[in-house]
Inverse folding.
């Protein structure tokens, strides 16, 4: 006889949190024509992959039956899915190469002003920094002109005369769905990984902080948006310079196997939480700490 599974007390608030974070994701999926069937298959694949990689039995890959018990995925599906080759979210060329170029542009005193803002760079220069030289310092496999054309298409940079100007938002461009999709997976994935780490109590807590207010006017939100962009960019630029220096120092070290991801986001919407069964006090500030 089938019995209804009773959720444990800790699972209820967790599922409530998952339901909330899934809402904007499902909205995105539906708007792009991705239905439940595709997501169900993908979710099964992820469950099986996580069980194999994160929960080995005596340092060995768990059996189909054990994976089925842990995940709830049918054993026939487990057998089929575990033979699939794992596909990571590969960075588009414009992201992997472009991120390195932008990091160097923003991290060098030769290509930034006294306030750390990126200087316009000439396409070519016999002496001094140039856009072509910057690209070639990262890779000689791609022509600088090809990179520039891609950046102009994506809105990452613009031309002013013969100088290349890096847009302040860098990779937050109005075009480039493939690039945006990559950053969605990487940044939101890392954010959830940090939150899950803290929720599970796996060692020292990772940095995860936010400031959130409700019941604000549109003009107040506009002021806060501008302040967040200004102060946020200052933090990103400072950390980028530090990371660039440390990366150069660590080059060739066999222990240099770690990665970091420090990011910013800003969201604004209405103050209604009725559909989620939640509420916020009127005018009350709240800070995650």
């Amino acid at each position: 006889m089938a019995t209804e599974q009773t959720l444990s007390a800790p699972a209820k608030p967790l599922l409530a949190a998952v339901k909330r974070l899934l809402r904007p994701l499902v909205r995105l999926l539906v708007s792009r024509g991705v239905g439940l069937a595709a997501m169900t298959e993908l979710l099964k694949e992820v469950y099986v992959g996580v069980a194999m990689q994160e929960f080995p039995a005596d340092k060995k890959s768990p059996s189909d039956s054990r994976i089925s018990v842990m995940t709830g995925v049918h054993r026939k599906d487990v057998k089929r899915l575990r033979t699939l080759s794992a596909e990571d979210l590969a960075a588009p060329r414009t992201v992997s190469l472009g991120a390195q170029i932008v990091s160097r542009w923003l991290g060098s005193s030769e290509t930034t002003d006294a306030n750390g803002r990126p200087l316009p760079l000439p396409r070519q220069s016999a002496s001094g920094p140039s856009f072509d030289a910057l690209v070639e310092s990262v890779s000689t496999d791609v022509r600088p002109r090809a990179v520039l054309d891609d950046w102009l298409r994506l809105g990452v940079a613009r031309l002013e005369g013969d100088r290349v100007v890096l847009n302040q938002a860098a990779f937050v461009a109005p075009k480039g769905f493939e690039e945006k999709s990559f950053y969605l997976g990487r940044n939101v994935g890392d954010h959830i990984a940090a939150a899950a780490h803290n929720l599970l109590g796996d060692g020292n807590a990772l940095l995860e902080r936010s400031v959130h207010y409700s019941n604000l006017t549109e003009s107040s939100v506009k002021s806060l948006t501008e302040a967040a962009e200004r102060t946020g960019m200052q933090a990103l630029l400072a950390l980028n310079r530090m990371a660039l220096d440390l990366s150069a120092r660590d080059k060739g070290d066999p222990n240099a196997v770690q990665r970091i991801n420090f990011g910013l986001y800003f969201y604004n919407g209405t103050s209604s939480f009725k559909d989620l069964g939640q509420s916020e006090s009127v005018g009350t500030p709240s800070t995650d700490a």
Notes: Confidence is low (pLDDT under 50) at residues 274-284. Residues 93-166 form one domain. The CA atoms of residues 52 and 95 lie 30 Å apart. DSSP finds nine helices and five strands in the chain.
